[in-house]
Request: fold
Amino acid sequence: MINEHMQVVFDYPDTFTDAVSHYCPGCTHGVIHRLIAEVIDELGIREKTVGVAPVGCSVFIYNYFETDFAEAAHGRAPAMATGIKRYLPDRVVFTYQGDGDLAAIGTSEIMHVAARGENITTIFVNNAIYGMTGGQMAPTTLPGMQTTSTSFGRDVELHGFPVRVCEVLSQMAGASYVVRRSVHDPGNINKTKKAIKAAFQVQLNQAGFSLVEILSTCPTNWGVTPEKSLAFVKEQMMPHYPLGDFKIADAVKTIVQ
Reply:
């Protein structure tokens, strides 16, 4: 029971359902879900939000949100989101995609959505591996990183270099807000929430395409403990995927401040 000497510092977002999470222990998908739910609540947009999720670890994301959701084929979430937004321009439409989905089979879709400046938002979760299908090498897997399909580590001469999505999409004229954040500690979790909120505000102001890339963990497929997976993000991923703002168009600078 709360009295006048107690302060609420944690509450359950209204946008969340009470479904039990299907994510592995230590996976930070759940943290990112909560941040999105909190932002939707704070902006008061739950009744007009539509999420789009493709195949991947987040395939059941619609179980956790009290909003409309659509399920897209693998990699096709941006294309489906485009159709929804053009038909229902008053809706707030976002895609929630992993690196294997967005940066491999869905590369064409995300590139052209950014090129066209579609007024949608993408939440891009980068854990440097295919999580759902068994821990294979993803487009974002680090050089030398072992996966089930690169047992001796990613060899850049054989497999190529990792794809840096923010760096690529920031060059697209239609992209208005492209940033990279992380959820490996409380300070960065707070910064990630602010970025997600800014991305939705860009869309609410009809200002073009917005994307927030979020460095996330996959302790199960990395073969480490949840604690060590957080350290891996900081020590291994962040040097290769530096956090920061890669594009904030002049037209949205006052919106995202």
